[in-house]
Design brief:
alpha+beta, two-stranded antiparallel ribbon, two-stranded antiparallel sheet, 17% helix, binds zinc ion
């Protein structure tokens, strides 16, 4: 017999999105339900937190992609859509 463990989350399970400064690795947690906008500058080292540009001009910037992602999560939370996302979760080892 083969057992398979799969883990799913719904948009409502996602409470916050964490992003990290490339320079100093300070982390910032953006709450999905109260999200207004991204921090443009790292509060720790004043470096650029999220890129406002992208080398490939056919793609949106990192900042725009993240803004849209969080906005979509917020939008989906209030809908009656049976949407679940499968995530890669570690399986506890057997003892
Ligand atoms: Zn920093």
């Amino acid at each position: 017999m083969t057992l398979e463990q799969r883990t799913f989350i719904s948009p409502g399970d996602i409470l916050a999105v964490e992003y990290e400064c490339d320079a100093c690795h300070a982390r910032y947690l953006a709450q999905v339900s109260t999200f207004k906008d991204l921090l443009g500058q790292c509060p720790n080292c004043k470096g650029t937190f999220i890129s406002q540009t992208y080398a490939d001009t056919s793609k949106r910037t990192d900042a725009d992609a993240l803004r849209h992602f969080i906005a979509a999560l917020n939008d989906l939370r209030g809908r009656k859509v049976a949407l679940r996302l499968e995530i890669n979760a570690p399986v506890p080892s057997k003892r």
